[in-house]
Amino acid sequence: MFPTAEVGQDFLEFFIHFDESSERDASSYEASMQEELDVFLQGYVWQKEPLVLGVSTTLPRALHGKMLVGDNVEDEWVATAALNTLTKKHSNITVQVWDADGEFLLIEAAEALPAWLNPDNSANRVFLRRGHLHIVHQNPTERHMELHTALSFVTDPETPSTRANKVMDAIVLDRLGHATSYSMQPDINHHHVQCMLPPAAALVFQALPHSIAYAVEAFYYRDPTEATQVCRHMQRFPVPSTSTGMATAMVPLTRCMYAQVKQQQFAPPKPFQPTTPRPDADANVVAAAELGMKLCCGLELLCHSRVQDWRGTVWRDAIDALLQDPARKFVPPSDLRPSDDDSWMYVTPEGLEAMLDAADSKLQHQSANDDEDGGESGGQALQTMASLFDKFVHTKSDYEGVATETLPTEVSFNMHALMEILKSGNVGDNLHESP
């Protein structure tokens, strides 16, 4: 019933390096570049922490940032796409970015890596500059390239170009383009829901919108025993004795947040029981009460911890300061609307078949280059793979294993074609059918 009570620490870390020829200090760019990022990312809802620039304390000519991404890895790609837009506008910067897994840009382009490049020698070799991926190929046998040396190779016009090969560059830029054209779109990133909340909780979510992500995380990763004890009293967010005392608010979530809250079974603690609608009440009212109860419990749990925001402020302190200000009151929304449709969460066999048909049709159009090279098209490769699985399952075996002489000795398989299906941007939208 409960997930592991261990919050993920996945992160994205980056540096914006300024060329040595730059006339201004990095600090003089901080505010203007942050504004550019904010404009690019306007309206985007982060799963946990936003993309924030700061002056590097370790490098003299750089801006730096590190953000926790929570359970939505897509935030990494959105943030990287935003940083890459800066490199298109500012020709004097080079961006370096990595995550908890290391050089995730190389992982994305793994099928096109040069033979010499591997995890042991990739440090300080992967950059974004002027809108493209750069790989420092000089001194390939050197296990650890010094950062200042690598940057000189990237920025010096007299040295051989460090632009990545066309396939690697295209793969990475395609992934960044997907983040921009699909993941950032409001109807994909946002999921607005009506919630019935105690007025104090509604005020916190309205005045401190970033607290929503932390409340979701506190609820999702709750310890069952602690949750029972804390939510039995609801000290900071007292629940009115009747539903008429509750506030109705529109709460902006990501799809990931919504799924985390929606799909968990959680019986209303005692303080919420008088305001909980009967099961046969209007479905929208039941959903608003249930979601509000879960989010409010998450907020109460957050206030019983010392969790900090990205600025180092303890959420409990910030929330207490807000609640103690008598001038701050929840303002009911003037445009209260129904909750967003959540049919994207539900998969039907018909939706899956339609998605596979659409993906196969797309792959057939992309197969021309494969055919010219003598290889299989994406659709043919998938059919081959399915056939091989079927043969393998039905092949005679003994104590020495499967008799492989009946199987083909060589298999040509287009990994990019398979990944097109797995990463298809509209998978969620094609899979669902309203329940």
Please provide a written account of the structure.
The protein has 435 residues and is an alpha+beta fold. The chain has three domains: 11-183, no CATH class; 188-340, no CATH class; 349-431, no CATH class. It has helices spanning 30-40, 74-89, 104-108, 147-155, 166-183, 186-189, 199-207, 211-220, 224-231, 255-262, 283-303, 315-323, 349-365, 368-372, 378-394, 415-422, 427-431; strands spanning 11-18, 54-55, 62-68, 93-99, 126-129, 132-135, 190-197, 247-254, 397-398, 401-402. Helix 2 crosses helix 5 (166-183).
* Average pLDDT for all residues: 87
**Which consecutive residue ranges, at least 5 long each, have pLDDT under 50?**
430-435
Tally of domains = 3
Radius of gyration of CA atoms, rounded to a whole number = 26 Å
Helices, by number, come to 17
InterPro entries: Ecd
Present the secondary structure layout.
Layout: E1 11-18, H1 30-40, E2 54-55, E3 62-68, H2 74-89, E4 93-99, H3 104-108, E5 126-129, E6 132-135, H4 147-155, H5 166-183, H6 186-189, E7 190-197, H7 199-207, H8 211-220, H9 224-231, E8 247-254, H10 255-262, H11 283-303, H12 315-323, H13 349-365, H14 368-372, H15 378-394, E9 397-398, E10 401-402, H16 415-422, H17 427-431
Antiparallel strand pairs: 1-3, 1-4, 2-3, 5-6, 7-8, 9-10
Helix pairs in contact: 1-2, 2-5, 8-11, 15-16
InterPro entries: Ecd
List descriptors.
disordered C terminus, alpha+beta, Ecd, 3 domains, 435 residues, four-stranded antiparallel β-sheet, two-stranded antiparallel sheet
